[in-house]
């Protein structure tokens, strides 16, 4: 068989992920996740795996790299097999000795169980009864109890099982170690930021939504910032961290891909903007600061790296742990999201802020590529496989509805006509939408294609609400703002920040699996809410019951 020298192949940014998920790629896709003997640890890896399956067939670099990895893996397993075989010849197996001992024990047991009359034939070997009292020592009588033999038999069987288990564990550990070594080696040679290390991520589910609550003064200044977590399965609300300090503004920029960190920014009264993260292990950690008139929004790249927009015409990549940074000269209106190796952003130099662009950060010269045209402030949603972007057009110009376009800007088309905005994805990657029907807000799961039927998940997601944007919702149209909507990654739960006709506002949780809706908290009028999203942040030990947690001003 002829092997291709991968050094002659063009570089591919997906190569490290292909190596890391090699064993999963070699398994049939039809096998369900619970039965896989693989190392997929969270939802991000599941999505990555689906993307890699379609990518590998069209990528000669990844195909050649995987072929080499499989060959190395086969050679390593063969070496281990011959190593064990050679040592077995040098050190004779104890299996035959164990079975011989078992047979001997069985024979001995059968002899002990013979009738008394058969044993009496040997009584002549002992002294007569009248002479036994004169013997200097008692004559021992053989005695082998049945439990003793059964215990020995059971111990021998356990010995065999233990030897087999140790050999199997050694083979599995050796294979896992070599697989990780190849992945780490490839990652170190890549110019892209390091891939997320899921080995350090706990298995806590994406079922805890983070809520940022700010309290405003009469002058409009932020007096305090508090992050809460609401765990949907337990129904518990907990305070994560609270900062009592005056701020001119507070922004939240999302949850990291491993679900463990919240990204946010605060602006001081002196107009200095500080970017920071919160994790349950390290609490608040500021990592970057610049002038407020130059500091734009920030987005996650992976579990450790963040991209910050500098309105002076730069984009800065920062490692939130080490502080290392890298800068690109790039004019942007607002950063949208990052999907390796592409940065997607709205608005470019001398361009409409409603247009979505992308650039390949691995290129030496950045050339923005137009992906989609939409109204300013449009929220764009990249699907889990990274191939399609959805967005809504609710403006007067153009046909209203949800549109779809390829992640490279190809094949833009109307996906669903009418009212409604995308809010995320279900467990099967189907697009979820929120739409107004009469005076109600309805949660809908769309079909995999525009022609497939839709499914109403909840008929009234926010009972009595007049707006999801602000207190001025006095029209018949319920305003929908993405920053006040947070859908659980598997589509089972939905948190809304809603406003009512009397000016009050509250947090509403919808259990889409059960089809129920309930108000979590009525909020003070001087409270501001930020919903960075759902996370894996575990509830602190001193968690508060949902009826006792104080979200107050």
Task: Describe what you observe in this structure.
The protein has 553 residues and is an alpha+beta fold. It has a domain at 1-121 and 143-190. It has eight helices and 31 strands. It has helices at 15-20, 22-25, 43-56, 60-90, 95-112, 116-119, 129-132, 146-188; strands at 208-216, 222-231, 236-247, 249-255, 261-267, 272-279, 283-291, 295-300, 305-310, 314-319, 325-329, 332-339, 342-348, 355-360, 369-373, 381-382, 388-393, 401-406, 413-417, 421-425, 431-437, 440-445, 455-458, 467-468, 479-480, 485-487, 493-499, 505-511, 516-523, 527-535, 544-545. A five-stranded antiparallel β-sheet has the order 30-1-2-3-31, with no helix packed on it. The longest helix has 43 residues, at 146-188. The chain is globular. The model is unreliable at 32-40, 116-148, 176-204 and 542-548 (pLDDT under 50).
């Amino acid at each position: 068989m002829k092997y291709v020298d991968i050094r002659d192949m063009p570089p591919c940014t997906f190569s490290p992920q292909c190596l890391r998920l090699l064993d999963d790629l070699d398994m049939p896709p039809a096998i369900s996740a619970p039965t896989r003997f693989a190392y997929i640890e969270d939802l991000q890896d599941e999505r990555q795996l689906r993307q890699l399956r379609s990518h590998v067939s069209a990528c000669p670099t990844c195909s050649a790299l995987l072929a080499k990895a499989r060959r190395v893996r086969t050679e390593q397993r063969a070496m281990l097999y011959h190593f064990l075989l050679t040592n077995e010849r040098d050190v004779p197996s104890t299996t035959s000795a164990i079975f011989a001992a078992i047979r001997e024990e069985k024979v001995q047991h059968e002899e002990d169980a013979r009738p008394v009359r058969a044993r009496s034939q040997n009584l002549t070997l002992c002294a007569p009864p009248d002479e036994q009292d004169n013997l200097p020592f008692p004559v021992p009588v053989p005695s082998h109890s049945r439990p003793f033999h059964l215990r020995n038999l059971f111990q021998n069987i356990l010995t065999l099982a233990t030897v087999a288990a140790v050999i199997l564990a050694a083979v599995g550990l050796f294979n896992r170690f070599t697989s990780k070594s190849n992945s780490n080696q490839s990652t170190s040679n890549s110019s892209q930021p390091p891939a997320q290390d899921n080995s350090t991520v706990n298995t806590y589910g994406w079922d805890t939504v983070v809520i940022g609550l700010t309290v405003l003064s009469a002058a409009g200044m932020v007096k305090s910032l508090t992050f809460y977590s609401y765990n949907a399965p337990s129904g518990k609300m907990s305070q994560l961290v609270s900062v009592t300090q005056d701020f001119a503004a507070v922004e939240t920029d999302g949850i990291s891909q491993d679900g463990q960190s919240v990204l946010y920014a605060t602006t001081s009264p002196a107009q200095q903007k500080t970017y920071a993260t919160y994790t349950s292990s390290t609490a608040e950690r500021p990592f970057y600061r610049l002038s407020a008139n130059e500091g734009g929004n920030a987005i996650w790249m992976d579990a450790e790296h963040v991209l910050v927009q500098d309105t002076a015409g730069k984009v800065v990549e920062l490692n939130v742990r080490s502080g290392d940074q890298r800068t690109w000269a790039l004019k942007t209106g607002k950063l949208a999201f990052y999907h390796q190796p592409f940065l997607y952003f709205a608005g470019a130099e001398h361009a409409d802020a409603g247009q979505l662009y992308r650039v390949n950060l691995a290129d030496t010269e950045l050339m923005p590529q137009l992906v989609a045209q939409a109204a300013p402030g449009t929220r764009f949603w990249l699907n889990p496989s990274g191939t399609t972007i959805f967005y809504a057009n609710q403006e007067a110009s153009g046909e209203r509805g949800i549109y779809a376009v390829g992640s490279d800007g190809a094949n833009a088309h109307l996906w669903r006509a009418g009212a409604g905005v995308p809010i995320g994805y279900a467990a099967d990657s189907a697009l979820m939408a929120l739409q107004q029907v009469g005076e109600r807000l309805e949660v809908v799961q769309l079909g995999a294609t525009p022609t497939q039927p839709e499914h109403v998940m909840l008929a009234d997601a926010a009972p009595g609400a007049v707006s999801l944007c602000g207190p001025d919702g006095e029209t018949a149209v319920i305003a929908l703002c993405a920053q006040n909507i947070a859908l659980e990654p598997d589509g089972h739960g939905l948190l809304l920040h809603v406003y009512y006709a009397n000016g009050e506002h509250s947090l509403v949780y919808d259990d889409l699996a059960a089809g129920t809706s309930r108000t979590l908290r009525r909020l003070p009028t001087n409270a501001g809410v930020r919903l960075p999203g759902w996370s894996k942040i575990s509830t602190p030990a001193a968690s508060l019951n949902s009826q006792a947690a104080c979200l107050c001003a």
